[in-house]
Amino acid sequence: MRPPPAFDPAELGRIPAELLARYDVAGPRYTSYPTAPIWTDSFGADDYERALSKSAADGRPLSLYVHIPFCESLCVYCGCSVVITKQRERATAYVEHVEREIVRIAELAGAAGREAVQVAWGGGTPTYLPPDLIERLLDSIRTHFPVADGAEVGIEVDPRVTTREHVEAIGRAGFNRISMGIQDFDPAVQEEIHRVQPYELTRDLIAWCREAGLASVNVDLVYGLPLQTLAGFDDTITQVLTLEPDRVSAFSYAHVPWLKPAQSKFRPATIPVGPEKFAIFVRLVERLTDAGYDFIGYDHFARPGNELSEAQQTGALWRNFQGFTTKSGTDLIGLGVTSIGSFDDAFVQCDKDLGAWSATVRDGGLPAKRGMWLSDDDRIRRDVIQDVMCRYRFDPAAIAARTGIDPLTYFADALDGIAPLEADGMLVREPGGGFALTSRGRVFVRNVCMLFDAHLDPDAERPVFSRTV
Length: 469
Ligand code: SF4
What we know:
The protein has 469 residues and is of the alpha/beta class. 39% of the residues lie in helices and 20% in strands.
């Protein structure tokens, strides 16, 4: 595997405003291809059962995702599927339902003869569950899905509701990855987004994680939030560096009040956009790479030696609904309300309505609500988009070897479209008819991938997608 193209953070600061404006369009984040808006409601429980049975026959290793939807209060910028409640007793009933779902799906997926190489809990807030319930649910998973030695077992936590007892239970249960939101330490931003989380709270939580022996600590930041400024975010970066996280994820705030009405509270004039927002992101890239972090994909950072960094160097990086990961070639099973599953030839999303999801699971059914079967063309394009997102290249010889097609003929139309990207310095052509992304192309990789997306209508408005800047 060839090493990835070189990345020079200084190149980002040289992008002209005019070019930035042209590339600042609505576009998918490509955590899947085809992207979720393409999936349909006609994919139901029978399809899900068939996908699980095909998965059982294939026997590929498994990734598991468990969704815990509850949060105590709503962070106004939030784009996740959440249930806001202070009724803690709802957690017990929910875990009982997930345990029912585990039993049913493990049986259909032939889990006893397979290994789970990745387990991820997200939300919502997994630490909305009390410590004993967290241990119990992970035990239930292990009972029905054999978890491989050395598997990545990760959990997202909200520092505002995570106690030392939680962290000790997380360590005892066998989690070895922990991820927590910071977003921005600026008190004015925190007030505005309704997420007040002092630095000291996060610092103490990370210290407990280290004491509990958690191998990897990730923090999430969000750029483009209302009231965010370059100077304020610079201070946030300084504070983050003192915490020495193993990984940092930087998410672009997606202002989509037509999908997330709570965001209507933000005054548009306070939201940094375009060059102002991009400058905040560039500062983050410059300061983290200066501090020795590797820039992974287009929005993650990891210390050298971290498995994400190694995966980037060896070509093993992969992209799924959790972002960039090292576990390629797995079938992903989603557990819990609104969770998503991904198979070789199918995607499935479970019911987003907690009541409907619970009723289906209680009755022994499969809570599939949406999804799609992938055509051969979808699978080929998914392969290419994965390659561009994770290995920063369109490599015809490698694509031909994996898929059996002639990529230069198959993608002739898409390749016709790369001349403007080349002229804008986003990519350079390589011998054999392929191309490699430049440093600025790495940041605008979503725009490059859109060339290979057969489901995008180039003339349509795309209000369901966030902007690429
Ligand atoms: S804690 Fe996380 S999931 Fe819950 S509302 Fe806030 S951002 Fe959203």
